[in-house]
Design a protein that fits this description.
The complex is a heterodimer. Chain A is mainly β. Chain A has two helices and 28 strands. Classes of the chains: A mainly beta, B alpha/beta. Chains A and B meet through strand 23 of A and strand 3, strand 4, strand 5, helix 2 and helix 4 of B.
Chain lengths: 415, 187
Protein backbone atom coordinates (compact mmCIF):
# COMPACT_ATOMS: atom_id res chain seq x y z
CA UNK A 1 0.00 0.00 0.00
CA UNK A 2 1.48 3.31 -1.04
CA UNK A 3 1.54 6.19 1.31
CA UNK A 4 -0.99 8.83 0.37
CA UNK A 5 0.40 12.29 0.66
CA UNK A 6 0.11 15.76 -0.69
CA UNK A 7 3.10 17.35 -2.37
CA UNK A 8 3.66 20.65 -0.63
CA UNK A 9 4.81 23.83 -2.24
CA UNK A 10 7.56 25.93 -0.72
CA UNK A 11 5.24 28.80 0.31
CA UNK A 12 2.00 27.07 1.18
CA UNK A 13 -0.31 29.68 2.61
CA UNK A 14 -0.46 33.36 3.52
CA UNK A 15 -3.12 35.36 5.30
CA UNK A 16 -3.15 39.06 6.00
CA UNK A 17 -6.89 39.11 6.76
CA UNK A 18 -7.28 41.17 3.59
CA UNK A 19 -10.52 39.51 2.48
CA UNK A 20 -11.86 41.46 5.44
CA UNK A 21 -14.13 38.71 6.69
CA UNK A 22 -14.22 37.44 10.26
CA UNK A 23 -16.26 34.43 9.17
CA UNK A 24 -14.64 31.01 9.18
CA UNK A 25 -13.79 29.19 5.95
CA UNK A 26 -13.43 32.42 4.01
CA UNK A 27 -9.81 33.49 4.39
CA UNK A 28 -8.86 31.26 7.32
CA UNK A 29 -10.38 28.00 8.44
CA UNK A 30 -12.41 28.65 11.58
CA UNK A 31 -13.15 30.98 14.43
CA UNK A 32 -12.51 30.11 18.03
CA UNK A 33 -15.24 32.12 19.75
CA UNK A 34 -15.63 35.59 18.19
CA UNK A 35 -12.40 37.22 17.06
CA UNK A 36 -12.62 40.57 15.29
CA UNK A 37 -10.63 42.25 12.55
CA UNK A 38 -8.99 45.62 13.13
CA UNK A 39 -8.72 48.36 10.54
CA UNK A 40 -6.69 50.66 12.79
CA UNK A 41 -3.78 48.60 14.07
CA UNK A 42 -2.56 46.89 10.93
CA UNK A 43 0.96 46.05 9.92
CA UNK A 44 0.21 45.99 6.18
CA UNK A 45 -2.84 46.05 3.99
CA UNK A 46 -6.16 47.05 5.52
CA UNK A 47 -6.90 44.54 8.29
CA UNK A 48 -5.34 42.52 11.10
CA UNK A 49 -6.74 39.98 13.53
CA UNK A 50 -7.55 41.54 16.90
CA UNK A 51 -7.83 39.65 20.15
CA UNK A 52 -9.82 41.74 22.60
CA UNK A 53 -12.57 41.48 25.23
CA UNK A 54 -11.40 38.11 26.44
CA UNK A 55 -13.84 36.19 28.61
CA UNK A 56 -12.59 34.10 31.51
CA UNK A 57 -12.08 30.49 30.50
CA UNK A 58 -13.11 31.11 26.90
CA UNK A 59 -10.60 30.70 24.09
CA UNK A 60 -10.75 33.32 21.35
CA UNK A 61 -8.97 33.39 18.01
CA UNK A 62 -8.75 31.60 14.66
CA UNK A 63 -7.68 28.18 13.39
CA UNK A 64 -5.85 27.68 10.12
CA UNK A 65 -5.32 24.50 8.10
CA UNK A 66 -2.63 25.09 5.47
CA UNK A 67 -1.94 21.33 5.08
CA UNK A 68 -2.93 18.08 6.67
CA UNK A 69 -1.09 15.70 8.94
CA UNK A 70 2.45 16.26 7.73
CA UNK A 71 5.80 15.81 9.40
CA UNK A 72 7.34 19.02 8.17
CA UNK A 73 9.71 20.74 8.35
CA UNK A 74 7.33 23.72 8.41
CA UNK A 75 8.15 27.32 9.15
CA UNK A 76 5.38 29.58 10.47
CA UNK A 77 5.38 33.37 10.51
CA UNK A 78 3.01 35.66 12.35
CA UNK A 79 3.45 39.28 13.26
CA UNK A 80 2.31 40.15 16.77
CA UNK A 81 1.56 43.59 18.20
CA UNK A 82 0.56 43.84 21.85
CA UNK A 83 -1.56 46.80 22.99
CA UNK A 84 -2.23 45.43 26.46
CA UNK A 85 -0.52 42.47 28.09
CA UNK A 86 -2.62 39.60 29.47
CA UNK A 87 -3.15 39.43 33.20
CA UNK A 88 -1.04 36.29 33.51
CA UNK A 89 0.69 33.71 31.30
CA UNK A 90 -1.60 33.11 28.33
CA UNK A 91 -1.45 30.71 25.38
CA UNK A 92 -1.56 32.78 22.17
CA UNK A 93 -0.26 30.51 19.37
CA UNK A 94 -0.38 26.74 18.91
CA UNK A 95 0.23 23.92 16.43
CA UNK A 96 -2.01 20.87 16.62
CA UNK A 97 -2.89 17.65 14.83
CA UNK A 98 -6.64 18.03 15.38
CA UNK A 99 -9.10 20.78 14.56
CA UNK A 100 -9.26 22.29 18.05
CA UNK A 101 -7.05 24.04 20.57
CA UNK A 102 -7.01 21.27 23.15
CA UNK A 103 -3.83 19.26 23.72
CA UNK A 104 -1.70 20.97 21.08
CA UNK A 105 1.79 19.71 20.33
CA UNK A 106 3.59 23.07 20.28
CA UNK A 107 2.55 26.45 21.67
CA UNK A 108 3.70 29.90 22.71
CA UNK A 109 2.60 31.84 25.76
CA UNK A 110 2.75 35.53 26.62
CA UNK A 111 2.68 36.70 30.21
CA UNK A 112 1.83 39.97 31.95
CA UNK A 113 5.46 41.08 31.74
CA UNK A 114 5.65 40.49 27.99
CA UNK A 115 7.69 37.30 28.33
CA UNK A 116 7.26 34.91 25.41
CA UNK A 117 7.77 31.19 26.11
CA UNK A 118 7.89 28.15 23.81
CA UNK A 119 6.44 24.79 24.87
CA UNK A 120 5.89 21.42 23.33
CA UNK A 121 3.69 18.67 24.69
CA UNK A 122 6.44 17.46 27.02
CA UNK A 123 7.81 20.65 28.58
CA UNK A 124 8.86 24.23 28.12
CA UNK A 125 11.80 24.58 25.74
CA UNK A 126 14.54 26.58 27.37
CA UNK A 127 14.79 30.25 26.54
CA UNK A 128 12.53 33.28 26.63
CA UNK A 129 12.35 36.74 25.16
CA UNK A 130 10.53 39.82 26.37
CA UNK A 131 8.22 41.85 24.17
CA UNK A 132 7.01 45.42 24.59
CA UNK A 133 3.67 46.97 23.78
CA UNK A 134 3.00 48.86 20.58
CA UNK A 135 5.60 47.10 18.43
CA UNK A 136 5.06 44.68 15.53
CA UNK A 137 7.22 41.62 16.19
CA UNK A 138 7.89 38.90 13.65
CA UNK A 139 7.33 35.66 15.56
CA UNK A 140 8.36 32.50 13.71
CA UNK A 141 8.18 28.82 14.63
CA UNK A 142 9.92 25.80 13.13
CA UNK A 143 8.23 22.41 13.43
CA UNK A 144 10.05 19.34 12.15
CA UNK A 145 8.88 15.83 12.97
CA UNK A 146 10.58 14.25 9.96
CA UNK A 147 13.30 12.64 12.06
CA UNK A 148 13.06 9.84 14.56
CA UNK A 149 11.51 10.31 17.99
CA UNK A 150 13.95 12.20 20.12
CA UNK A 151 15.28 14.11 17.11
CA UNK A 152 12.25 16.26 16.39
CA UNK A 153 12.90 19.98 16.05
CA UNK A 154 10.95 22.83 17.63
CA UNK A 155 12.29 26.35 17.52
CA UNK A 156 10.95 29.88 17.87
CA UNK A 157 12.39 33.24 16.83
CA UNK A 158 11.50 36.87 17.23
CA UNK A 159 12.60 39.23 14.47
CA UNK A 160 14.98 36.61 13.17
CA UNK A 161 16.68 35.77 16.46
CA UNK A 162 16.01 32.39 18.04
CA UNK A 163 15.02 32.64 21.69
CA UNK A 164 14.14 28.99 22.34
CA UNK A 165 14.78 25.79 20.42
CA UNK A 166 15.57 22.13 20.63
CA UNK A 167 16.43 19.36 18.18
CA UNK A 168 15.84 16.54 20.66
CA UNK A 169 12.07 16.58 21.03
CA UNK A 170 9.57 13.73 20.76
CA UNK A 171 6.35 15.04 19.19
CA UNK A 172 3.49 12.57 19.16
CA UNK A 173 1.67 13.47 15.94
CA UNK A 174 1.97 15.25 12.62
CA UNK A 175 0.84 18.83 12.41
CA UNK A 176 -2.28 20.09 10.61
CA UNK A 177 -3.72 23.09 12.42
CA UNK A 178 -2.27 26.43 13.46
CA UNK A 179 -4.14 28.57 15.96
CA UNK A 180 -3.76 32.21 16.95
CA UNK A 181 -5.61 34.03 19.69
CA UNK A 182 -5.86 34.38 23.44
CA UNK A 183 -6.95 32.19 26.32
CA UNK A 184 -6.19 29.26 24.02
CA UNK A 185 -5.68 27.05 27.05
CA UNK A 186 -8.91 28.21 28.62
CA UNK A 187 -7.13 30.63 30.94
CA UNK A 188 -9.25 32.71 33.34
CA UNK A 189 -7.97 35.92 31.80
CA UNK A 190 -10.07 38.94 30.94
CA UNK A 191 -7.43 41.56 30.23
CA UNK A 192 -5.29 41.99 27.20
CA UNK A 193 -5.47 43.22 23.66
CA UNK A 194 -3.18 42.13 20.85
CA UNK A 195 -3.09 41.82 17.07
CA UNK A 196 -1.83 39.33 14.49
CA UNK A 197 -1.05 40.08 10.84
CA UNK A 198 0.86 38.85 7.77
CA UNK A 199 0.75 35.11 8.44
CA UNK A 200 2.80 32.79 6.23
CA UNK A 201 3.93 29.19 6.26
CA UNK A 202 6.70 27.54 4.25
CA UNK A 203 7.69 23.92 3.79
CA UNK A 204 11.27 22.88 3.07
CA UNK A 205 10.52 22.11 -0.59
CA UNK A 206 12.13 23.87 -3.50
CA UNK A 207 14.94 26.37 -3.72
CA UNK A 208 13.20 29.51 -2.40
CA UNK A 209 10.93 30.08 0.59
CA UNK A 210 12.04 26.75 2.02
CA UNK A 211 12.97 27.93 5.49
CA UNK A 212 11.66 30.71 7.75
CA UNK A 213 9.55 33.14 5.69
CA UNK A 214 11.37 36.15 7.12
CA UNK A 215 10.16 39.68 6.65
CA UNK A 216 7.07 40.25 4.53
CA UNK A 217 4.03 42.44 4.10
CA UNK A 218 0.88 41.11 2.52
CA UNK A 219 -1.55 42.89 0.25
CA UNK A 220 -4.32 41.74 -2.07
CA UNK A 221 -4.84 42.96 -5.62
CA UNK A 222 -8.33 42.46 -6.99
CA UNK A 223 -9.69 42.54 -10.57
CA UNK A 224 -10.43 46.06 -11.73
CA UNK A 225 -10.82 45.79 -15.53
CA UNK A 226 -11.18 43.29 -18.33
CA UNK A 227 -8.03 41.44 -19.32
CA UNK A 228 -7.21 39.48 -22.45
CA UNK A 229 -10.24 37.16 -22.26
CA UNK A 230 -13.80 37.40 -20.94
CA UNK A 231 -15.54 34.24 -22.14
CA UNK A 232 -17.28 32.89 -19.05
CA UNK A 233 -20.95 33.63 -18.44
CA UNK A 234 -22.02 35.99 -15.69
CA UNK A 235 -24.25 34.38 -13.03
CA UNK A 236 -26.26 35.77 -10.15
CA UNK A 237 -26.53 39.54 -10.21
CA UNK A 238 -25.09 40.81 -13.48
CA UNK A 239 -22.62 43.59 -12.74
CA UNK A 240 -22.09 44.20 -16.44
CA UNK A 241 -18.60 42.76 -16.80
CA UNK A 242 -16.86 39.50 -15.96
CA UNK A 243 -14.15 41.17 -13.90
CA UNK A 244 -16.70 42.88 -11.67
CA UNK A 245 -18.36 39.55 -10.86
CA UNK A 246 -15.23 38.37 -9.07
CA UNK A 247 -13.58 41.48 -7.62
CA UNK A 248 -15.46 41.82 -4.34
CA UNK A 249 -14.10 41.20 -0.88
CA UNK A 250 -15.25 39.47 1.19
CA UNK A 251 -16.40 37.04 -1.50
CA UNK A 252 -20.17 37.07 -1.97
CA UNK A 253 -20.43 33.51 -3.32
CA UNK A 254 -23.74 33.03 -5.17
CA UNK A 255 -24.59 36.73 -5.28
CA UNK A 256 -22.46 37.24 -8.38
CA UNK A 257 -19.99 34.95 -10.10
CA UNK A 258 -18.76 33.74 -13.48
CA UNK A 259 -19.49 30.23 -14.70
CA UNK A 260 -18.60 27.95 -17.58
CA UNK A 261 -19.46 24.51 -18.89
CA UNK A 262 -17.59 25.03 -22.14
CA UNK A 263 -14.15 23.55 -22.69
CA UNK A 264 -11.28 26.03 -22.83
CA UNK A 265 -13.30 29.16 -22.12
CA UNK A 266 -11.01 31.70 -20.43
CA UNK A 267 -11.39 34.76 -18.24
CA UNK A 268 -8.35 36.97 -17.63
CA UNK A 269 -8.66 40.05 -15.42
CA UNK A 270 -6.53 43.13 -14.95
CA UNK A 271 -5.72 44.02 -11.36
CA UNK A 272 -5.72 47.02 -9.05
CA UNK A 273 -2.64 49.19 -9.20
CA UNK A 274 -0.23 48.31 -6.43
CA UNK A 275 -0.46 50.61 -3.39
CA UNK A 276 2.21 53.11 -2.46
CA UNK A 277 3.12 50.84 0.43
CA UNK A 278 4.66 48.50 -2.13
CA UNK A 279 7.71 50.41 -3.33
CA UNK A 280 9.42 49.95 -6.67
CA UNK A 281 12.51 48.53 -4.96
CA UNK A 282 10.66 46.08 -2.74
CA UNK A 283 11.50 42.40 -3.01
CA UNK A 284 8.47 40.35 -4.02
CA UNK A 285 8.72 37.21 -1.89
CA UNK A 286 5.78 35.43 -3.49
CA UNK A 287 2.62 36.04 -5.49
CA UNK A 288 -0.32 33.75 -4.83
CA UNK A 289 -3.60 33.50 -6.72
CA UNK A 290 -6.55 33.04 -4.40
CA UNK A 291 -10.05 32.03 -5.40
CA UNK A 292 -13.55 31.27 -4.19
CA UNK A 293 -15.10 28.41 -6.20
CA UNK A 294 -18.02 25.98 -6.46
CA UNK A 295 -19.91 23.86 -8.97
CA UNK A 296 -23.52 24.44 -9.99
CA UNK A 297 -24.09 20.80 -9.00
CA UNK A 298 -21.80 17.85 -8.41
CA UNK A 299 -23.47 15.18 -10.48
CA UNK A 300 -21.66 13.07 -13.03
CA UNK A 301 -17.97 13.37 -13.75
CA UNK A 302 -17.78 17.06 -12.76
CA UNK A 303 -15.79 19.76 -14.56
CA UNK A 304 -12.34 21.08 -13.74
CA UNK A 305 -10.67 24.44 -14.18
CA UNK A 306 -7.12 25.77 -14.01
CA UNK A 307 -5.76 29.05 -12.69
CA UNK A 308 -3.77 31.37 -14.98
CA UNK A 309 -1.36 34.23 -14.49
CA UNK A 310 0.57 36.51 -16.83
CA UNK A 311 2.79 39.51 -16.17
CA UNK A 312 1.52 41.61 -19.07
CA UNK A 313 -1.31 41.75 -21.57
CA UNK A 314 -0.87 39.10 -24.29
CA UNK A 315 2.23 37.95 -22.43
CA UNK A 316 3.55 34.56 -21.41
CA UNK A 317 0.98 32.70 -19.37
CA UNK A 318 1.35 29.99 -16.77
CA UNK A 319 -1.44 27.63 -15.80
CA UNK A 320 -1.88 25.18 -12.96
CA UNK A 321 -2.89 21.59 -13.37
CA UNK A 322 -6.59 20.82 -12.94
CA UNK A 323 -8.33 22.16 -9.87
CA UNK A 324 -10.89 19.49 -9.24
CA UNK A 325 -14.54 20.44 -9.28
CA UNK A 326 -16.19 18.30 -6.66
CA UNK A 327 -18.84 20.21 -4.71
CA UNK A 328 -21.68 22.69 -5.04
CA UNK A 329 -20.61 24.26 -1.75
CA UNK A 330 -18.47 27.37 -2.04
CA UNK A 331 -14.93 27.06 -0.78
CA UNK A 332 -11.68 28.98 -0.75
CA UNK A 333 -9.00 27.32 -2.89
CA UNK A 334 -10.88 24.02 -2.63
CA UNK A 335 -14.59 23.47 -2.99
CA UNK A 336 -16.89 22.20 -0.32
CA UNK A 337 -16.06 24.28 2.69
CA UNK A 338 -13.43 21.86 3.92
CA UNK A 339 -10.75 23.07 6.25
CA UNK A 340 -7.79 22.82 3.87
CA UNK A 341 -7.03 26.19 2.28
CA UNK A 342 -3.57 25.96 0.73
CA UNK A 343 -2.98 28.30 -2.23
CA UNK A 344 -2.96 26.45 -5.57
CA UNK A 345 -0.88 28.84 -7.70
CA UNK A 346 2.23 30.37 -6.13
CA UNK A 347 5.04 31.99 -8.10
CA UNK A 348 8.35 33.45 -6.95
CA UNK A 349 9.46 34.63 -10.36
CA UNK A 350 7.76 35.80 -13.53
CA UNK A 351 5.60 33.46 -15.60
CA UNK A 352 7.84 31.35 -17.81
CA UNK A 353 10.94 32.47 -15.94
CA UNK A 354 13.10 30.74 -13.39
CA UNK A 355 15.18 33.50 -11.85
CA UNK A 356 13.53 36.82 -12.77
CA UNK A 357 11.71 38.20 -9.76
CA UNK A 358 8.43 40.07 -9.90
CA UNK A 359 8.53 43.85 -9.54
CA UNK A 360 5.98 46.51 -8.74
CA UNK A 361 5.91 47.40 -12.44
CA UNK A 362 5.11 43.80 -13.38
CA UNK A 363 2.34 43.61 -10.83
CA UNK A 364 0.78 46.77 -12.18
CA UNK A 365 0.17 45.12 -15.57
CA UNK A 366 -0.35 41.53 -14.44
CA UNK A 367 -3.50 39.56 -15.18
CA UNK A 368 -4.99 36.58 -13.36
CA UNK A 369 -7.75 34.29 -14.51
CA UNK A 370 -9.02 30.79 -15.09
CA UNK A 371 -9.84 28.33 -17.87
CA UNK A 372 -12.42 25.56 -18.00
CA UNK A 373 -10.25 22.49 -18.50
CA UNK A 374 -12.72 19.59 -18.37
CA UNK A 375 -16.45 19.71 -18.84
CA UNK A 376 -19.64 17.94 -18.05
CA UNK A 377 -23.13 19.36 -17.74
CA UNK A 378 -22.34 21.12 -14.46
CA UNK A 379 -20.91 24.64 -14.39
CA UNK A 380 -17.61 25.56 -12.75
CA UNK A 381 -18.05 28.84 -10.88
CA UNK A 382 -15.69 31.56 -9.62
CA UNK A 383 -17.16 34.06 -7.18
CA UNK A 384 -13.90 35.81 -6.33
CA UNK A 385 -10.28 35.84 -7.37
CA UNK A 386 -7.37 37.84 -6.00
CA UNK A 387 -3.60 38.09 -6.11
CA UNK A 388 -1.90 38.03 -2.72
CA UNK A 389 1.50 39.71 -2.83
CA UNK A 390 4.02 39.07 -0.07
CA UNK A 391 6.67 41.76 -0.37
CA UNK A 392 9.68 42.89 1.61
CA UNK A 393 10.61 46.55 1.74
CA UNK A 394 14.15 47.38 0.77
CA UNK A 395 16.53 47.87 3.68
CA UNK A 396 16.17 51.45 4.81
CA UNK A 397 12.82 51.82 3.10
CA UNK A 398 10.06 53.56 4.99
CA UNK A 399 8.23 50.32 5.73
CA UNK A 400 11.24 48.12 6.47
CA UNK A 401 11.53 46.43 9.83
CA UNK A 402 13.59 48.50 12.29
CA UNK A 403 17.30 48.48 11.50
CA UNK A 404 18.13 46.88 14.84
CA UNK A 405 16.10 43.92 13.75
CA UNK A 406 18.20 43.48 10.65
CA UNK A 407 21.56 43.67 12.35
CA UNK A 408 21.96 39.97 13.19
CA UNK A 409 22.08 39.26 9.46
CA UNK A 410 25.04 41.57 8.73
CA UNK A 411 28.60 41.00 9.82
CA UNK A 412 29.70 44.47 8.88
CA UNK A 413 28.27 47.93 8.58
CA UNK A 414 25.19 48.44 6.49
CA UNK A 415 26.17 50.52 3.51
CA UNK B 1 8.73 9.34 2.23
CA UNK B 2 7.47 8.78 -1.24
CA UNK B 3 9.43 10.13 -4.17
CA UNK B 4 8.04 13.42 -5.43
CA UNK B 5 8.47 13.50 -9.19
CA UNK B 6 7.78 15.98 -11.97
CA UNK B 7 7.75 14.94 -15.62
CA UNK B 8 8.03 17.63 -18.28
CA UNK B 9 7.67 17.96 -22.04
CA UNK B 10 8.78 20.82 -24.28
CA UNK B 11 6.80 21.23 -27.49
CA UNK B 12 9.64 22.29 -29.74
CA UNK B 13 9.59 19.32 -32.07
CA UNK B 14 7.10 20.10 -34.85
CA UNK B 15 3.36 19.63 -34.95
CA UNK B 16 3.21 15.86 -35.28
CA UNK B 17 6.03 15.15 -32.87
CA UNK B 18 4.64 17.49 -30.26
CA UNK B 19 1.32 15.72 -30.42
CA UNK B 20 3.02 12.34 -30.38
CA UNK B 21 5.05 13.00 -27.26
CA UNK B 22 1.89 13.69 -25.31
CA UNK B 23 0.38 10.51 -26.65
CA UNK B 24 3.50 8.61 -25.61
CA UNK B 25 3.15 9.78 -22.02
CA UNK B 26 -0.62 9.46 -21.61
CA UNK B 27 -0.67 5.63 -21.36
CA UNK B 28 1.77 5.86 -18.46
CA UNK B 29 -0.47 8.10 -16.38
CA UNK B 30 -2.25 6.34 -13.53
CA UNK B 31 -4.86 8.34 -11.68
CA UNK B 32 -5.60 7.53 -8.05
CA UNK B 33 -8.89 8.70 -6.60
CA UNK B 34 -9.14 9.35 -2.89
CA UNK B 35 -12.51 9.16 -1.21
CA UNK B 36 -14.32 12.03 0.47
CA UNK B 37 -13.21 12.52 4.01
CA UNK B 38 -9.61 11.57 3.43
CA UNK B 39 -7.11 13.90 5.01
CA UNK B 40 -6.57 16.24 2.13
CA UNK B 41 -9.98 17.23 0.88
CA UNK B 42 -13.60 17.14 1.93
CA UNK B 43 -14.56 15.59 -1.39
CA UNK B 44 -13.08 13.24 -3.95
CA UNK B 45 -9.57 14.23 -5.01
CA UNK B 46 -6.90 12.53 -7.07
CA UNK B 47 -3.22 12.27 -7.72
CA UNK B 48 -1.03 10.65 -10.35
CA UNK B 49 1.66 8.00 -10.60
CA UNK B 50 3.57 6.45 -13.50
CA UNK B 51 2.46 2.98 -14.56
CA UNK B 52 5.09 0.39 -13.85
CA UNK B 53 7.29 2.55 -11.64
CA UNK B 54 7.44 0.45 -8.51
CA UNK B 55 9.11 3.04 -6.32
CA UNK B 56 6.64 4.72 -3.96
CA UNK B 57 6.01 8.00 -5.76
CA UNK B 58 3.65 10.73 -6.90
CA UNK B 59 4.12 12.61 -10.16
CA UNK B 60 2.97 15.94 -11.52
CA UNK B 61 3.26 16.87 -15.19
CA UNK B 62 4.60 20.03 -16.83
CA UNK B 63 4.43 21.22 -20.44
CA UNK B 64 6.17 24.19 -22.08
CA UNK B 65 5.00 25.64 -25.38
CA UNK B 66 7.72 27.83 -26.95
CA UNK B 67 6.97 31.18 -28.53
CA UNK B 68 5.17 30.99 -31.85
CA UNK B 69 4.33 27.30 -31.55
CA UNK B 70 0.72 26.27 -31.96
CA UNK B 71 -0.56 24.38 -28.97
CA UNK B 72 -0.74 20.66 -29.74
CA UNK B 73 -4.42 19.80 -30.08
CA UNK B 74 -4.02 17.20 -27.33
CA UNK B 75 -2.16 19.57 -24.97
CA UNK B 76 -4.92 19.51 -22.41
CA UNK B 77 -5.35 15.75 -22.37
CA UNK B 78 -2.34 15.59 -20.08
CA UNK B 79 -3.30 17.23 -16.79
CA UNK B 80 -0.31 19.45 -16.27
CA UNK B 81 1.17 22.73 -15.19
CA UNK B 82 1.87 24.72 -18.33
CA UNK B 83 3.68 27.71 -19.69
CA UNK B 84 2.78 29.22 -23.05
CA UNK B 85 5.48 31.66 -24.14
CA UNK B 86 4.07 34.78 -25.78
CA UNK B 87 4.74 38.46 -26.38
CA UNK B 88 7.90 39.56 -24.64
CA UNK B 89 9.46 36.10 -24.86
CA UNK B 90 10.04 36.00 -28.62
CA UNK B 91 13.46 34.44 -28.10
CA UNK B 92 12.07 31.42 -26.23
CA UNK B 93 12.20 29.07 -29.18
CA UNK B 94 13.97 25.87 -30.22
CA UNK B 95 16.29 24.43 -27.63
CA UNK B 96 16.41 27.49 -25.42
CA UNK B 97 17.81 26.56 -22.04
CA UNK B 98 14.98 28.49 -20.39
CA UNK B 99 12.59 25.60 -20.94
CA UNK B 100 14.57 23.22 -18.76
CA UNK B 101 15.26 25.99 -16.26
CA UNK B 102 11.54 26.72 -16.02
CA UNK B 103 10.72 23.04 -15.65
CA UNK B 104 13.25 22.47 -12.87
CA UNK B 105 12.38 25.67 -11.04
CA UNK B 106 8.62 25.46 -11.21
CA UNK B 107 8.50 21.74 -10.46
CA UNK B 108 10.69 22.15 -7.39
CA UNK B 109 8.70 25.25 -6.37
CA UNK B 110 5.72 22.92 -6.37
CA UNK B 111 7.41 20.30 -4.24
CA UNK B 112 9.19 17.96 -6.65
CA UNK B 113 12.41 16.42 -5.44
CA UNK B 114 13.34 15.00 -8.84
CA UNK B 115 12.54 16.47 -12.24
CA UNK B 116 12.30 14.35 -15.38
CA UNK B 117 12.69 16.05 -18.75
CA UNK B 118 11.53 13.72 -21.52
CA UNK B 119 13.21 15.06 -24.63
CA UNK B 120 12.70 11.95 -26.80
CA UNK B 121 9.46 10.34 -25.77
CA UNK B 122 9.79 7.50 -28.27
CA UNK B 123 12.90 6.34 -26.45
CA UNK B 124 11.46 6.89 -22.98
CA UNK B 125 10.51 3.93 -20.84
CA UNK B 126 9.59 3.58 -17.21
CA UNK B 127 12.15 0.82 -16.85
CA UNK B 128 14.88 3.16 -18.03
CA UNK B 129 13.56 5.91 -15.79
CA UNK B 130 13.66 3.57 -12.79
CA UNK B 131 17.25 2.63 -13.60
CA UNK B 132 18.35 6.27 -13.78
CA UNK B 133 16.39 7.28 -10.70
CA UNK B 134 18.33 4.63 -8.83
CA UNK B 135 21.53 6.40 -9.80
CA UNK B 136 20.46 9.68 -8.20
CA UNK B 137 21.93 8.88 -4.80
CA UNK B 138 24.64 10.45 -2.71
CA UNK B 139 26.16 13.39 -4.50
CA UNK B 140 24.65 12.54 -7.90
CA UNK B 141 22.34 15.44 -8.78
CA UNK B 142 21.98 15.17 -12.55
CA UNK B 143 21.62 12.34 -15.04
CA UNK B 144 21.44 12.11 -18.81
CA UNK B 145 19.51 9.08 -19.96
CA UNK B 146 19.26 8.63 -23.74
CA UNK B 147 15.75 10.07 -23.72
CA UNK B 148 16.29 13.26 -21.68
CA UNK B 149 17.55 14.67 -18.40
CA UNK B 150 17.00 14.09 -14.69
CA UNK B 151 17.68 16.82 -12.16
CA UNK B 152 17.28 16.99 -8.39
CA UNK B 153 16.26 19.91 -6.24
CA UNK B 154 19.74 19.76 -4.76
CA UNK B 155 21.14 20.63 -8.20
CA UNK B 156 19.16 23.85 -8.19
CA UNK B 157 20.03 24.67 -4.60
CA UNK B 158 23.77 24.04 -4.81
CA UNK B 159 24.68 24.57 -8.46
CA UNK B 160 21.92 26.84 -9.77
CA UNK B 161 20.14 27.08 -13.10
CA UNK B 162 21.55 26.53 -16.56
CA UNK B 163 23.08 29.49 -18.32
CA UNK B 164 20.71 30.84 -20.97
CA UNK B 165 23.05 32.56 -23.41
CA UNK B 166 23.70 29.31 -25.25
CA UNK B 167 21.37 26.54 -26.37
CA UNK B 168 20.41 23.63 -24.17
CA UNK B 169 23.20 21.24 -25.08
CA UNK B 170 25.94 23.78 -24.47
CA UNK B 171 24.20 24.93 -21.30
CA UNK B 172 24.21 21.36 -20.05
CA UNK B 173 27.93 21.08 -20.79
CA UNK B 174 28.46 24.19 -18.69
CA UNK B 175 26.23 22.80 -15.96
CA UNK B 176 28.31 19.64 -15.73
CA UNK B 177 31.45 21.71 -15.19
CA UNK B 178 29.70 23.60 -12.40
CA UNK B 179 28.40 20.37 -10.88
CA UNK B 180 31.93 19.05 -10.65
CA UNK B 181 33.21 22.34 -9.29
CA UNK B 182 30.57 22.14 -6.56
CA UNK B 183 31.84 18.71 -5.53
CA UNK B 184 28.76 16.98 -6.87
CA UNK B 185 28.32 14.31 -9.52
CA UNK B 186 26.41 13.57 -12.73
CA UNK B 187 25.89 10.35 -14.62
Amino acid sequence: MWLIFLILMARIWDCGFELQSATGDIEYHANISTPVLSSTTVRSGARSLEIVSLASGLANGVRNNPFSAATGPFFYRQYLNIATMPGAENRIIYLNDSDNQTTPMVWLTLDNGGVLRLYDQDAQITGTTTLSTGVWYRVEIEYDRSGVAGAHVVRARVDGTEFAGSATRDISANVSFWGLGGNLNGEANTTGNWFFDDLAVNSSAGSLENTYPGEGEEIHLYPNAAGDNAQWTRGGTNSGANWSQVEEFPPNDATDYNESATLNQIDDHNLDATPAALASDDTINAVMVGMRIALSANTGADPNAVLRIKASASGTVEETANLAGNSATWGTHRMGGGSLMDYRLVLYDLPGASTTAWTKADLDVAQIGYRESNTDTDFYRFSAIWLLVDHKPAVGGAAAEPQSVMQPFFAGPIL
Amino acid sequence: MALQLALGLVHNQGVGANRRQINDILPLVVIHYEPPGSDFDTHVWYWYSLAGLLTDHEVKFYQAVPFGIAEPDNLYLLDSYKVLYAQGDEDKVGNHARFLNWLIKRATDNGAGTVIYVRNSAAFSVASLAAFLALLVGNVVFAEPPWGKLATVRLLREVGPLVENVDLDLAVDDLKIRITAAGLLFV
